[in-house]
Structures are given as C-alpha cells and as structure tokens.
Amino acid sequence: MAVPRSRVLDLMKRQCYVFRTTYNPERLRMGTRILRERLKGTAVAEYYPPRIGTIKQLRSLYPQYEIEDEKEEEWLEHMQIARSRGKQPPKKKRTAAESKRFTKKK
Amino acid sequence: MSQFRAKKLDIGCFINIRNIRDHTKRKVFAANEPEVQALRYIVRNTTFPQRVRAQAQLQLSQMHCYTRFTQIKNRCIMGGRGRGILSDFRMGRYQFRINALAGNLPGVKKASW
C-alpha cells in the first residue's frame, strides 16, 4: 500500500524539527551544506608552534627575579668599546644648517 | 603581503620567510573565515535573488588572496621544506626520519619484519 505524499512530507517536517535540519521538500540548493561545515581557522592557525621562553616574557612572568640577557649585555659592551674608540654613530642633526654642512658639492 | 605580518616574530620553530609567510596566511584565513563562509552561503543559496548572489560572489572574489584556504601550505617545522611533509608530524620526510630515529617522536618506531 502506497503512503500518500502528504504523510511523507509531514514525517520529513517532524524529522527536520527533531534533528534541527532545514525542511526542504523541493530539494532546492540552499547552501546549508556550507553552514554545516565546521570552522577550521583556529586549528589551521595553530600549525606552527608559538614562540615561548623569550627573556621579555620571562621578565614579565617573574618580576621578582633578576633575569640576565646575555646577548643584550654583550651587544651593549661591544657598543661601549666602539664608543671608546670613537666609532659611535654620528650625532643627530637638529637644525637645517647643520645637516647641510656636508652635502655641499666640492 | 607584509601588512598582515606580525610586527614581532611569533613562531618558535624553524624560521625562514616562507614559514613566516605561511603563518601569516593562516592567521589571516582564521580571522576572515566566518565572513568567507557567510558569503559562500549567500552565493550557493538559490533561493536568494540573483542580484544579491552576484554581489556576494563579487565581494568574495575581491577579498584578499590571503583569506583563501588554498593559499595555505603545510611546511616542515624543523627545516622549512614545502614538499614531502608528513602532516601528522608537521615535518619533512628527512627531518621525520632523523627525529624518529633519535626517539623524539613518541610512539614512532622503525619497522622491521
């Protein structure tokens, strides 16, 4: 015995209500497939491991401890030595007259 | 496109420009994903008026290329290689071999029978 179409549609409607899907008896393309897709952005963005354990992070995490940055100190020492040898970067020109002094054509 | 790049280095693996670029693309993709999906829904929904769908399609095609998933490529986190990546371990085949033999990958064992 064939079941009338209206009964089947009723059943479909109930089914959609229960399972929270879109009631679409004409089978129109409504793009609900895209709404059903999961967002993968966060998983995708976590591919590369984050940068952790930098001196700055450690200092902000443990302000009670004195944390040395060996590289920075080495650099500062190097700069100190360079300065003592007269190899420091030139002074910043403050006025237009000063900055023009060395640009003249000879 | 450097306008999206983090001002400070924020990845702790092997670093070269391609890895940094790919990381930037991933972040841009994650930030724009809801918008892209919404536009794709409008485009695919045949019950919307044709004009709306065409506008959505135009908008989608005019978004920056970094917002597309196809731009993203898995790269080796140990050596930066772009080919021959085992995506479960995020490593190139040779780095995978070296690390597996050194015992750095839990549960990975050389097969022999």
UniProtKB/TrEMBL annotation, chain A:
Biased composition (Basic residues): 84-94
UniProt KW Nucleotide-binding keyword: no
Pfam families named among the record's database cross-references: MRP-S33 (PF08293)
Keywords assigned by UniProt, alphabetized: Mitochondrion, Ribonucleoprotein, Ribosomal protein
Cellular component per GO, a single term: mitochondrion
Subcellular location: Mitochondrion
Location of region: Disordered: 81-106
Feature: compositional bias, Basic and acidic residues: 95-106
PANTHER family, per the entry: MITOCHONDRIAL RIBOSOMAL PROTEIN S33, SMALL RIBOSOMAL SUBUNIT PROTEIN MS33
Family that this chain belongs to: Belongs to the mitochondrion-specific ribosomal protein mS33 family.
Protein name listed in UniProt: Small ribosomal subunit protein mS33
Lineage: Eukaryota, Fungi, Dikarya, Ascomycota, Pezizomycotina
From TrEMBL, chain B:
Coiled coil regions, renumbered to chain: none
Keywords: Ribonucleoprotein, Ribosomal protein
UniProt cross-references to InterPro entries, sorted A to Z: Ribosomal_uS14
Keyword Ribosomal protein assigned: yes
Highest taxon, organism lineage: Eukaryota
GO cellular component, one term: mitochondrial small ribosomal subunit
Molecular-function GO terms, alphabetical: structural constituent of ribosome
GO process terms (BP): translation
Family statement drawn from the similarity comment of this UniProt entry: Belongs to the universal ribosomal protein uS14 family.
Name assigned to this protein: Glucocorticoid receptor-like (DNA-binding domain)
Organism: Lojkania enalia
